[in-house]
Amino acid sequence: MKLKNVLIVVKDIEKSKQFYHDLFGLDMVLDNDGNMILTEGLVLQDERIWKDFLKKDIIPQSNSCELYFEEKEIEVFVKKLEKLYPEIQYVNKIMTHRWGQKVVRFYDLDGNLIEVGTPV
Description:
Elements: E1 6-10, H1 13-24, E2 28-31, E3 35-38, E4 42-46, H2 47-54, E5 66-70, H3 74-84, E6 90-96, E7 102-107, E8 113-117
């Protein structure tokens, strides 16, 4: 068995596609009308489709999982994040763990938790 994708729910696929391209360089692989696959296996799904399928409400900022990215130049990344998305909500600004790794955590446009850390 092989994990193929990670799916996150978004309100506006086009805005989210731009967000993940701007910050992480992810590009669209397939647009399937409400389900969009980006490079690296991230799938964006329109919130209406997800709600219809689950018959349950979406809980933004549920803090039950996170997308994790690594970036050597984390300070440069944070400057880009602040410039392109000044309204972004942080969980924590850049901090350094006791093992020396620097990380920043924030929510994407739809409340999905993201962590960016320096390589371990």
